[in-house]
Amino acid sequence: MSERFDDGMKTRRSVLGDAHVDRAEANKTAFDEPFQTFITEGAWGSVWSRDNITKRERSMITLALLAALGQWDEVAMHTRATANTGATPDDVREAMMHVAVYAGVPAANHALKIIKQTYKEMGVEI
């Protein structure tokens, strides 16, 4: 694998946690291996590994984009990742306020429902 892949895997593990990445790797098949390599190198090795902004800030941006796009499973996954990125519930709430203004109240409302449930499952009081 490439250096970008190695950097991406390190960052991916730091954000999503070893358990999540281990499950994804265990479920990887020959069919989706090129896709998994692509996101590890592209998303995690290129964007998430940059040091221009913090993982906390990237976490808030990512959650806002996922909510705006209606990617509910990813909203839950990246809410769980806030335990590793330093984004607080207050940060996440503020990101959803931006979603409401710029992408629509229904998207933010549904995302908040998922975020609240995910925090509850994580044992995070909000």
UniProtKB/TrEMBL annotation:
GO molecular function: peroxiredoxin activity
Domain of life: Bacteria
Pfam families the UniProt entry points to: CMD
Residue span, Carboxymuconolactone decarboxylase-like domain: 35-116
Record-linked InterPro entries: 4CMD/NDH-1_regulator, AhpD-like, CMD-like, Decarb_PcaC
Lineage of the organism: Bacteria, Pseudomonadati, Pseudomonadota, Alphaproteobacteria, Rhodobacterales
The protein's name in its UniProt record: Carboxymuconolactone decarboxylase family protein
Gene3D superfamilies: AhpD-like
